[in-house]
Amino acid sequence: MFSHSRILCPELQQKIMTAEQAADFIQDGDTVGMSGFTGAGYPKALPGALVNKAQIQRDLKKPFKINLWTGASTAPELDGVLADAEGINLRLPYQSDPICRQQINSGQMHYIDLHLSEVSQYAWSGFLGDLNVAVIEVAGIHKDGRIIPSSSVGNNKTWVEQADKIILEVNSQQSLKLEGMHDIYYGTALPPHRKPILLNEPADRIGSQYLDIPKDKIVAVVETSAPDRNSPFSPPDAVSEQIAANILEFFEHEINKGRLPANLLPLQSGVGNIPNAVLSGLDNGGYKNLSAYTEVIQDGMLQMLKSGTLSVASATAFSLSPDALVELNENIDFYREKIILRQQDISNHPEIARRLGIIAMNGLIEADIYGNVNSTHVMGTRMMNGIGGSGDFARNGYLSIFMTPSTAKNGAISAIVPMVSHVDHTEHDVKVVVTEQGLADLRGLSPRQRARVIINHCAHPDFRDQLLDYYERACASGRGMHTPHLLNEALSWHERFEQTGSMHPA
Predict the structure, then answer these.
(1) pLDDT score for 232
(2) Over the chain, what is the mean pLDDT?
(3) 457 CB neighbour count, 10 Å cutoff
(4) Alpha carbons 369 and 414: distance in angstroms, whole number
(5) Is the CB of residue 83 less than 8 Å from the CB of residue 107?
(6) How far apart, in whole angstroms, are the C-alpha atoms of residue 425 and residue 394?
(7) Is the omega angle on the peptide bond into residue 93 within 30 degrees of 0, that is, cis?
């Protein structure tokens, strides 16, 4: 039994019910906006109740599917269980669940892959249709109705503004000491009514600590007690450490050239082992008073805050291993002074990223010899996860760095190819490509100059001669000498892999 001690508002105490009762507010065909961003702050009870409802409906020979909007990826208890129950018709804007991925690629599930900064604008403008229900996890509710947000903000502000009905999940395993960490900005608007966003430093606070939700829109309050589901990171391997070393050496070079200050510029980092290796290298590199303006706070950033390498981190969510989550909760008074959680249309805002001069570090699936990057599709057609926020920062950051091991599938796939099979980030938005082989600084280079730098610095030796041969024959053809290609061969490496399981010639 719950004590209701986190739900202090008398009006909302009257709306406390079970997840199964709350699920009755969601019908087949509804569009539901749920909280959650990288395994943090997602509803813990409603998804399971919807799965049970779907099964009951199917037993009655009735359909039950919803259109699901979130902040980004969530967890198996949300994406996984709903997909496994075939309960999702359409998903947006980002996912990383293997069951969702399989259904997207088999055509069972529609998927809209969006830049994360644009999701709110799409919803406000009506491009996505009506939002019937919002299901939002929160940490607590004050007597006057003020809502303490949970471990992610994501699109929650937009969902509660747009939804006809709102269901709150109050999770007693989210620390009440999160109160004060959030900064919810209420000054956004659609054109032509937009005004400058007066955020000049990552540490600036421009909004409210609370979610403002009209009580009359809240139809149910569900009490839960369950932790976020975040997986531990693997220890950095030799490849990740070498990629990190290449990036750190590049930073030192840029500082010595006077193109970066000694404390760099605000950092944005994707999630994963390679980014954490970079963060660890920065933490051991003698840097002090760095800042982060990014999407997620991951393990490496907590350590950097604790050591003083990082003075402040602005994001929209946590993405922590279980051990790091324990560290956060045990020392939350310290971290609350140094971490700010914002909604994702502010954490990923292109104008802010441009003005602050973000150093953007993100992963890729493949890059081609001219610097175009594919970060979403395997072999051109099979969705992996989605573009996430990488495009928000890559196009608008001061430095856009894309990093990857030079090979995949035990050396059968080259991450550097003649032509990418899908383009997410054009050559115009890619400034640096890094593998364990080396780093290609593409700034100020023409396409043909970029090709030689990428091949010589980033390609694995097992594929380097093939790439040089392709490039030289493309140049010798004399056709289209700005970006020379042999169109009958440009995607032959992918075709060869599909046929033989390897990009290597027979």
Answers:
(1) 75
(2) 96
(3) 18
(4) 12
(5) no
(6) 8
(7) yes
